[in-house]
Amino acid sequence: MARESEFLALGDDALRAVIGPNSRHIALIEDRFKVLVETPGGGVSINGSARDRAQAKRVIETLADRAETGAEITEADVRTALGAAVAQPRAGQGSVAPDAVALPVGRRGAIAPKTAAQARYLELLSRCELTFGVGPAGTGKTFLAAAYGASLLRRGQVDRLVITRPAVEAGEKLGFLPGDLNEKVDPYLAPIWEALNDILGPDDVRRRRDKGEIEAAPIAFMRGRTLAHAFIIVDEAQNLTKLQMKMVLTRLGEGARMVVTGDPSQIDLLNARDSGLSHALRILDGVQGSGVLKFEAQDVVRHAMVERIVRAYDADAARQKPGPDPEDRA
Q: Residue 170's pLDDT is what?
């Protein structure tokens, strides 16, 4: 097959993002598609077969589009774009529209979905009163939930952002931990605080917490409450029991929305069959106002090694998969 060159003009910011630190991003593109990518100035020159050039061009255009929105381009972004170009080879299908849902600009640039699954997840968050985001670590399900909740709070579409999760490691006996309620709960919510600090900035997060616009509480403190005009994030939901899941789902009040995130493969309960996440997914399937996005190993954007780890564990779980829970059949 004939190898030819094609030049793609890029702005300075996009060109730096495509090149990457020590030309690492270009090296990944060249290795995946067996092309030669050079930077003669003002853009990139792609040399290779027509098919390889087309795939490499889609990756470069995806990275350039994200860079021009102000987003920081990492190696994880490059690997995600590479996978999308291979999975969706026809022109126009390899990129994700960053403007599908308006998200805030974080400290590292504009926040936008990096994969097609993330784009569908954000679409569900905007459309459904109750959204489930389930799948392996590193797929962005918690970060995007926090980003979407922060965007609603900033635009005044909700009055509060309420964050809750089970404190399984401490048996929900938070009184044995030092400090006030926030100091007791915060260690369990570190991933969400990191996300919100990145999105809103630590000072804004602190101010909103002081005003009660952002609230964190363990699942045990949700009982008996009605959460109106709030965006509720229920994190690590695989560690909720069936009764806890029912209790927290029924906290929804007027004008409220909820997202439930979790990884069914990482249940920390003494009896994994007590987990309410898979049970809720089954019985709420098709219920009006609810939506489910199931992330897969190929949606991992954290690190290439994380995807390989997830695939290895998934393969092992498939070999040892137990039979269905008799109670769930009832």
A: 39
CA distance 56 to 52: 6
In whole angstroms, what is the distance from residue 214 CA to residue 192 CA? Answer: 11
Retrieve residue 231's tokens: 């965006």
What are the structure tokens assigned to 243, written together? 């009764």
Report the C-alpha gap between 44 and 26 in whole angstroms.
10
3-class secondary structure, 289: coil
Q: What is the pLDDT of residue 326?
A: 53
pLDDT value of residue 309: 80
Is 64:17 a contact under the CB 8 Å cutoff? yes
Q: Which parts of the chain sit beneath pLDDT 50?
A: 1, 89-100, 170-172, 174, 330
Q: What is the pLDDT of residue 69?
A: 80
Predicted TM-score of the model (pTM): 0.68
Beta strands in the chain (DSSP E): 4-9, 36-38, 43-48, 105-106, 109-110, 130-134, 160-165, 214-218, 230-234, 257-262, 290-294
Q: Would you state the structure tokens that stand for residue 328, as one six-digit string?
A: 């769930």
Helix ranges restricted to H, 22-114: 24-33, 50-68, 75-87
Look at residue 98 in the predicted model and tell me its pLDDT.
40
Q: How far is CA 152 from the centre of its chain?
A: 17
C-alpha span between 238 and 97 (Å, rounded)? 30
- Provide the pLDDT for residue 254: 92
Residues 148, 161: Cα–Cα separation, whole Å: 10
Amino acid 57 reads K
* Amino acid occupying residue 124: L
DSSP character at residue 132: E
Return phi, psi of residue 243, to 5°.
-70, -40
